[in-house]
TrEMBL record:
Residues where GTP binds: 115-118, 167-175
Membership in a protein family: Belongs to the TRAFAC class YlqF/YawG GTPase family. RsgA subfamily.
Protein name per UniProt: Small ribosomal subunit biogenesis GTPase RsgA
Positions annotated to bind Zn(2+): 248, 253, 255, 261
Subcellular location: Cytoplasm
EC number: 3.6.1.-
Organism of origin: Lactobacillus kimbladii
Length: 297
């Protein structure tokens, strides 16, 4: 007699899938039909499994995905906690806007955590905090301490939701996970001063129970590719541009040289950040050129 069950893939180890069902974690292999159909189950997938009388289990179906991001991949992501360091590596508005654009394109909400605030001086930290105030005003939640994250995140993660960390290499994602999950003890990395960025210390994707759902740690998202975005749609992934564009004279305004552009009017009034607009122009050029910028290679 074959028993059927459903669950979430929480880990992938040497061709085996660890599936969390309502009662157990079951280690299983995927049926060959997935290779035939060029479909590979990934962490975060909601799946069906079958278990025979001998206790042998197989992953037999992947349920429809809400989204798929990253390399290695993670499916059905509910929210991103974006870790940006104040120093070591240095805080980068260009990189911040790059991440926010990427996840806006993917349709995944983002919260921001500013790490390593204790390693910078008060003057520099104040400048960064003043900059991030703008991001809070346009709708992004910002955390400024691990204590603040630890006290809020377990309550924010809803039933079966999947939150994941993303951010610069060396920004402190593994250190943050260590503070959230007792006994996890992810390896933490040393910053390369010559590159002003860290080496990846997380090599696989795994889900861990936190709150009523899951938190994922991933090794990726530090060299995200925006070139697949259609250039005429890029404006929609800057959330304050999208809100303002309904007041532009021309539908489909690209906020370049069009007359009566509301976005450019708000930049002149100081209500839209000039740096955000400058980074929008840089990303347009990148998409036009069809290749990653040098600082990400």
């Amino acid at each position: 007699m074959i028993k059927e069950d459903q669950g979430i893939v929480i880990g992938l180890i040497a061709g085996y899938y660890d599936v969390q069902t309502s009662t157990d974690i079951i280690r299983t292999r995927a049926r060959g039909v997935f290779r035939k159909n060029n479909l590979k189950p990934v962490v975060g997938d909601h799946v069906k499994i079958q278990i025979d009388d001998q206790g042998t289990s197989y992953l037999v179906a992947v349920l429809p995905r809400k989204n798929l991001i990253g390399r290695p991949a993670l499916a059905n992501v509910t929210q991103i906690l974006l870790v940006m360091s104040a120093v070591q590596p240095d805080f980068s508005l260009q990189l911040l806007d790059r991440f926010l654009t990427f996840f806006s394109w993917k349709g995944v909400p983002v919260s921001i955590f500013l790490s390593k605030t204790d390693l910078t001086n008060r003057l520099e930290l104040t400048k960064i905090e003043e900059t991030l105030q703008y991001y809070q005003e346009i709708g992004y939640k910002v955390y400024y301490s691990q204590k603040e994250v630890a006290s809020n995140l377990p309550n924010d993660i809803g039933s079966e939701q999947i939150w994941t960390l993303a951010g610069q290499s060396g920004a402190g994602k593994s250190t943050l996970i260590n503070s959230l999950k007792n006994g996890l003890n992810q390896e933490t990395g040393v910053i390369s001063n010559s590159l002003n960025r860290g080496k990846h210390t997380t090599r696989t994707v795994n889900l861990f129970h936190l709150g009523k759902g899951y938190l994922a740690d991933t090794p990726g998202f530090s060299a995200i590719d925006l070139t697949p975005i259609k250039i005429n749609e890029l404006r929609n992934y800057f959330i304050e541009f999208k809100r303002a564009s309904k007041y532009c004279k021309f539908r489909g305004c690209q906020h370049l040289n069009e007359p009566k552009c509301e976005v450019k009017a708000l930049i002149k009034k100081g209500k839209i950040s000039k740096s955000r607009y400058d980074n929008y122009l840089l990303l347009r050029k990148e998409i036009e050129n069809g290749k990653l910028p040098e600082y990400l290679k």
